[in-house]
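User: Hi! I'm a student and our assignment asks us to look at how structure tokens line up with a sequence. Could you show me two examples?

Assistant: Happy to help. In each example below, the sequence comes first and the structure tokens follow. Example one:
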Amino acid sequence: MKDIFIKLGIISLIILIGCGKNPAVVNLRIINAQKITEKGGISPIWSPDSKKIAFISPAGNIWITSLESGEMQQITDEVVGAGYEYISWSPDGKKFAFNNENDMGIMNIDGTDRVIVVGHSAASQPQWLPKAKRIVFMLASTYAMINIDGTECKYIGGTLGLAYLGYCSGFPPKWAFSLLSNGTQMLINTTELSRGKDQKVKFFPAGIGIVEVKCESADNLNVRMLQKLKGVVSGASCSPDGKFIAFSHLGYIWIMNADGTGLTQLTSSELGNVKAGPVFSPDGKKLAIVLSKIGDSYDNIWILTLGREKD
């Protein structure tokens, strides 16, 4: 497959980072945009070495593509409509965590040794903790964590209405969160209200918040809001160094400091309509997104390379 590159030098940003009265100024921009798929894809996830992307095809199968050679490998062969909805690459690079419309489990990255961890359709969005022994996931409207052998399932907390993600490439809406690389916190996308088991309505601003990954009651979640926004936020990711948070909002990619300051729009309509993502690469140099462009028959996966302007 021939890669398609688009130069986006006109799109740039200036972000303040650091603490104190004289924070450093860092100039970032998108220096390259690479189209990875031609026939659609969702749920892009990076390999730990940042050299490959795994994704789910419109038919619900898992594929892996090499960013160096462009070679694509189909990993699974599921019946259309009964395939995978979400995948996550383990920190050691050996396994995928996944969910489909029926259950959640793990498998080797070549598709072998598929094991069901939670046999329930309400389990979704599994993400690995740093030591690859436990998984954080959504269980209906509650956040939970579990050992990869299916033991010791514990609640982190949650309430109905939190972290609602909008539609992505025709798939049903999901409850969205993103585990930080330190494994002790996660980003969530919030809606304007939620309702716990006690049926009491709790009001949260729409936007992006941060939650500590620790055991709580199933209907309790302490959210520290980082950014209040109008409209649905359809994905958020923290840079591996913990300095920046990138997210998609109203069809564009935005970026801000990890404390919620310096909010800046990173992409324009020239690139296209961002449908999902972004996801930071483990080396922090790139973002994976799902993009809708005029003339394309499918929403495809693209890789955005970040660079810095010269002072």
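Example two works the same way, sequence first and then tokens:
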Amino acid sequence: MTTNPKIHDVLFEAIKSMPSDYTDYGGMVRRWDNEETDYPDCSCGCRHFLPLDGPLGSDWGVCANRKVDRFGLLTFEHQTGSTCFEPMPGSYRHGPSFAPLVPELMVSNLAASLQFWCELAGFSVAYARPEEGFAFLYLGGAQVMLEDISVPGRKWLTGPLEKPFRRELNFEIGVDDAGALCSVFEAAGWPIYLPLETKTYRTSDASAMQSQFAVQDPDGYLLRFSQSLSQA
């Protein structure tokens, strides 16, 4: 099931901004401004975030925290969290269940990378160590770690970093709606490396069809977002 991107536009027009929201959404909390402060998302496993039914629930919900100004209001997953987040048992805030393979990407500016990965690509911050310039992100079952090379400390670099970083790699990330996500990047004016396409790949004695597009993050890492359509 897919979601019409126009529905997201209507919901963004409908949401009400509150002082406790992040500044990107009209609030007064400047995200990532304080290295000693954690800035969680509602979708990181907040016990008060009630997702909407259907595909919209991956991005939208209602705040059920009676102690805060967003109580009872339609809320975008990245809109708030610093003053109202309370983890539910089993959420990433109680310790993530690590995937067997988690890439750790060196980045030149963690704040800029977090804006890209979270505000555009839809990832959430599971946890962060601001003093180390480190953040662990997830989107569904996809996980990635980001580390700021400008922050002093141990760095596992096997060679010089020149943009675009790791130009020989591309990371495929499975999403529910590649078309809707591509529209988010296009609306933000972000360059599309590979325009949205439908592609069929042979898998042993079968074939798999998927919708996909690719973009580069601020450091040039190539990310290919794909949505499974069918398998024959």
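Here is something you could point out in your write-up. The CA atoms of residues 21 and 79 lie 6 Å apart.
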